[in-house]
């Protein structure tokens, strides 16, 4: 995933970015402060952290990869927001070994739950990092999108395997350890004590449309972006989305 502000990459990130940006604006009004403290767990090279810092907020990125954090610092410097981005090596399991509990207005938990041993613990830690009034942005791999993608590629046995596998994996070669349905994610969030505000399907069509069509057909990218945005809020499309985004708040 690339910078949400870059046009081609925005096919993958536009829906989440718009939801997140609106949530940050609401949190600014609620908190009565122009600058928020944002925690990005598993934030890697700063795909969301750098744009959030561009909005003027302070962002702490926790990631286990030193290479990713090095790339983050370079990216933040190039964007002129190095003073607002802090890189910390760590993971979701030992989150409070490296960051403060209850110290953040907003927590991003994007692409983390697929890889942790205990997704419920991952969500609890993200929630425990929030201040008494805070917002959680949760993004995880969707089961239905993987089933559809394998089927359209002609891998019907793998598609059926993913559909029936408890972890949503299509086989031993699957690089994603775990996938979720919308209900599974909202149940995890609700169990942590937060109120689910919205669920969006992400990359409903973007991963299925040939890249050459998007790149060469005049107006195709803009039209596809609008289609993704329109479909994202429709529950019927959550079941075929590549990713699922849950926005939740602690009142």
Automatic annotation (TrEMBL):
Chain ranges of the Methyltransferase type domain: 39-136
GO molecular function: methyltransferase activity
InterPro entries referenced in this protein's UniProt entry, alphabetically: Methyltransf_12 (IPR013217), SAM-dependent_MTases_sf (IPR029063)
Pfam families: Methyltransf_12
Region forming the signal peptide: none
Keywords for this protein: Methyltransferase, S-adenosyl-L-methionine, Transferase
CDD domains, alphabetized: AdoMet_MTases (cd02440)
GO terms classed as biological process: methylation
TM stretches of this protein: none
Protein name as annotated: Methyltransferase domain-containing protein
């Amino acid at each position: 995933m690339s910078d949400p502000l870059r046009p081609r990459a925005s096919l993958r990130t536009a829906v989440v970015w718009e939801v997140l940006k609106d949530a940050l604006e609401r949190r600014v009004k609620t908190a009565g402060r122009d600058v928020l403290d944002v925690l990005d767990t598993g934030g890697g090279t700063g795909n969301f952290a750098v744009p959030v810092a561009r909005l003027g907020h302070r962002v702490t990125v926790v990631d286990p990869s030193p290479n990713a954090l090095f790339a983050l610092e370079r990216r933040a410097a190039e964007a002129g927001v190095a003073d607002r981005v802090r890189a910390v090596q760590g993971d979701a399991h030992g989150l409070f070994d490296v960051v403060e509990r209850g110290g953040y207005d907003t927590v991003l938990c994007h692409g983390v739950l697929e890889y942790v041993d205990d997704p419920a613990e991952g969500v609890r830690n993200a929630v425990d990092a929030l201040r008494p009034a805070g917002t959680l942005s949760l993004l995880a791999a969707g089961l239905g999108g993987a089933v559809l993608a394998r089927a359209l590629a002609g891998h019907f046995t793998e598609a059926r395997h993913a559909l029936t596998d408890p972890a949503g994996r299509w086989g031993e070669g699957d690089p994603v350890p775990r996938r979720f349905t919308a209900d599974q994610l909202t149940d995890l969030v609700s169990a942590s004590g937060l109120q689910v505000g919205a669920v969006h399907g992400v990359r409903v069509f973007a991963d299925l449309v040939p890249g050459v069509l998007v790149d060469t057909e005049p107006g195709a990218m803009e039209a596809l972006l609008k289609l993704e945005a329109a479909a994202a809020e429709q529950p019927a499309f959550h079941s075929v989305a590549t990713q699922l985004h849950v926005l939740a708040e602690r009142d």
